[in-house]
């Protein structure tokens, strides 16, 4: 009995050490942790947001993150809070943050969407958005950002800002936005938002 208990205790200690080592390997180093803590306070643990008005930044590509932060810092992109925050960091800091969040898994939380609007949005996506926002918005390439599974209120607000030209966008996106607005106006934007918000599995 004593030997069995001793063996069990030893096994428990070894397993505990293994789990601790695995957890430590996934955790950011102290310097990185100090930088990204400012971000996760709003954008959620590891960059997956719990707040419907705040986007998830987990899995965001290096280029997308760097573009966002540098344009916030220079005031080319207007956002009351982010402009102030970005000014407190250097480009080297942004590089560290970008590398960290690019490695994080984008966690999609349950949210209510309208299936009819999502179905209509799927058609709009295929016609006007698919070339840049591949895999139903799951893929972040060339600064396209991850749209699939983002919070619905955030998507609606962002699409509205783009349609009103309150946010800069490349010509290709501007042309697509113009076509979408011509087709159904604000209703089309709402349909696109419901489509992207409803995406939980990569096709």
UniProtKB/TrEMBL annotation:
Annotated heme c 1 binding sites: 39, 42-43, 82
Primary localization: periplasm
GO-annotated molecular function: electron transfer activity; heme binding; iron ion binding
Signal peptide: 1-25
Keywords (A to Z) from UniProt: Electron transport, Heme, Iron, Metal-binding, Periplasm, Signal, Transport
Source taxon at top rank: Bacteria
Location in the cell: Periplasm
Database matches in Gene3D superfamilies: Cytochrome c-like domain
Maturation and modification: Binds 2 heme c groups covalently per subunit.
GO cellular component: periplasmic space
Binding site for heme c 2: 129, 132-133, 177
Span of domain Cytochrome c: 22-105
Parts of the chain that traverse the membrane: none
The protein's name: Cytochrome c domain-containing protein
Organism field: Thioflexithrix psekupsensis
Lineage of producing organism: Bacteria, Pseudomonadati, Pseudomonadota, Gammaproteobacteria, Thiotrichales
């Amino acid at each position: 009995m004593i030997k069995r208990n001793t063996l069990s205790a030893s096994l428990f200690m070894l397993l505990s050490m293994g789990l601790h080592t695995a957890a430590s390997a996934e955790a950011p180093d102290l310097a990185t942790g100090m930088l990204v803590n400012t971000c996760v306070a709003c954008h959620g643990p590891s960059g997956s947001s719990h707040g419907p008005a705040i986007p998830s930044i987990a899995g965001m590509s290096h280029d997308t993150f760097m573009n966002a932060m540098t344009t916030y810092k220079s005031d080319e992109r207007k956002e009351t809070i982010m402009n102030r925050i970005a000014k407190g960091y250097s480009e080297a800091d942004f590089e560290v943050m970008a590398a960290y969040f690019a490695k994080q898994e984008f966690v999609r939380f349950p949210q209510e969407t309208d299936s009819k609007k999502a179905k209509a949005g799927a058609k709009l996506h295929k016609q006007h958005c698919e070339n840049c926002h591949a895999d139903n918005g799951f893929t972040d390439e060339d600064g396209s950002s991850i749209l699939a599974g983002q919070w619905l209120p955030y998507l609606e607000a962002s699409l509205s800002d783009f349609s009103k030209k309150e946010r800069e966008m490349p010509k290709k996106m501007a042309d697509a936005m113009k076509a979408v607005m011509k087709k159904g106006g604000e209703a089309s934007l709402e349909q696109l938002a419901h489509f992207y918000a409803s995406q939980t599995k990569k096709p």
